[in-house]
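in:
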């Protein structure tokens, strides 16, 4: 419904810029969840937050208690109601919004991720958020991956359903998911059973590939299964000059692990990846380092290949610890699965967008890389007989995702919204 999209374009830009100004990290999206929830409540959706929305114990990579408490205090100061904070306490952010028309029809679900990244946004005057005055107000936190746009699209979809409630059929479930970065949030929502009776599931991403605004991809291929782990080595500190033999060097253990992790043989059955992204160790030049910390990820084309990489990584880490007579602790902090889009939806999406004024081209598939925890939601839907896909929405990318100067063309917002609106209209949802 092009007239609807045209009528909401200004609001889309306003929402996006507001979200961009107040980014929050995974499981700390207290203000973001509250703002989304109040908008969705005003539209007539039933809102589920806290343990209603996700399984507390299925979360990984939960921030430190002191960080959660500090952000909860900031959220209260920003105006988040106490009743909301009480339900979200301890990092139970994100929400599920449901709409049951009471009329026979499909159960359609949409997923929108809401978290930001620990990146300090550029102040360059050519950067549109800087030029137009909507830079991040939270120091060293930035929407550098387009999630501010994703949740904006979600509110647009919700507005359409609300304003056309007499015409739509079936049930709708909208996931505003926390902690996508690092593969931490989707599994916790999936484990609550929300996806078990979904007929059609749609998610997607602005960008990833640099494509013209108006170009979309109906499916994607290439997302890898992945595991994220933190490793702590604990040794013994000692004077480096007087008693070096009494020390147990945790830095050397971490260094040995880091170099040997990259020597894991690649797998004959598919793509593999490994990365040591962070290492911190020691306290001074004349002290044998008694502690070291590493952040590592593995990836594989299939879950089996990723498990191979993870097992090999654990073996090497433990061997490095033994070699330097230190102990090690490996903590899982994130995970994603492989995902395969339902190819049957390519025709459905192409047909639905034939009458679109905003969508100029529908690519059947786009090759991607990286990993996505929407995989848990997609795989659960498909396991229960539903169809699922992960789409791309074109934009020029002057800078890559996760870059301090990342931005996307706001013209991608109405394109993505009309895509989802046309899907709703073109399915069995409309009279």
């Amino acid at each position: 419904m092009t007239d609807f999209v045209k009528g909401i374009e200004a609001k889309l830009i306003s929402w996006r810029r507001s979200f961009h100004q107040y980014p929050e990290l995974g499981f700390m999206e207290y203000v973001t969840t509250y703002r989304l929830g109040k908008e969705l409540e005003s539209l007539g959706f039933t809102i589920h937050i806290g343990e209603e929305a996700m399984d507390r114990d299925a979360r990984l990579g939960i921030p430190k208690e002191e960080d959660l408490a500090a952000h909860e205090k900031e959220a209260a100061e920003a105006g988040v109601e106490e009743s909301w904070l009480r339900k979200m306490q301890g990092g139970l952010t994100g929400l599920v919004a449901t709409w049951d028309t009471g009329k026979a029809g499909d159960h359609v679900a949409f997923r929108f991720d809401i978290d930001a990244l620990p990146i300090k946004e550029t102040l360059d005057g050519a950067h549109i958020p800087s030029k137009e005055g909507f830079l991040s107000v939270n120091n060293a936190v930035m929407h550098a991956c387009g999630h501010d746009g994703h949740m904006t699209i979600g509110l647009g979809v919700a507005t359409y359903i609300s304003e056309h409630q007499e015409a739509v059929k079936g049930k709708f479930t909208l996931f505003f998911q926390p902690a996508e970065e690092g593969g931490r949030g989707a599994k916790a929502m999936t484990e609550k059973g929300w996806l078990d009776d979904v007929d059609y599931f749609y998610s997607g991403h602005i960008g990833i590939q640099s494509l013209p605004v108006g170009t979309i991809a109906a499916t994607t291929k290439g997302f890898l299964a992945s595991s994220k782990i933190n490793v702590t080595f604990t040794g013994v500190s000692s004077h480096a000059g007087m008693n070096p033999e009494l020390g147990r060097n945790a830095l050397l253990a971490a260094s040995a692990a880091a170099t040997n992790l990259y020597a894991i043989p690649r797998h004959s059955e598919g793509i593999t990846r490994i990365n040591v992204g962070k290492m911190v160790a020691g306290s001074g030049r004349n002290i044998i380092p008694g502690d070291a910390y590493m952040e590592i990820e593995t990836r594989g084309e299939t879950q089996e290949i990723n498990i191979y990489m993870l097992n090999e990584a654990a073996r090497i880490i433990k061997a490095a610890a033994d070699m330097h007579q230190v102990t090690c602790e490996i903590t899982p902090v994130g995970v994603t699965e492989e995902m395969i889009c339902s190819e049957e939806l390519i025709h459905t999406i192409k047909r639905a967008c034939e009458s679109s004024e905003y969508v100029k081209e529908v690519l059947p598939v786009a090759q991607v890389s990286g990993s996505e925890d929407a995989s848990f939601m997609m795989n659960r839907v498909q396991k229960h007989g539903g169809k699922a896909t992960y789409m791309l929405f074109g934009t020029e990318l002057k800078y890559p995702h996760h870059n301090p100067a990342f931005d996307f063309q706001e013209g991608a917002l109405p394109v993505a919204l009309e895509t989802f609106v046309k899907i709703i209209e073109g399915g069995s949802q409309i009279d």
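note: The CA atoms of residues 240 and 286 lie 5 Å apart.
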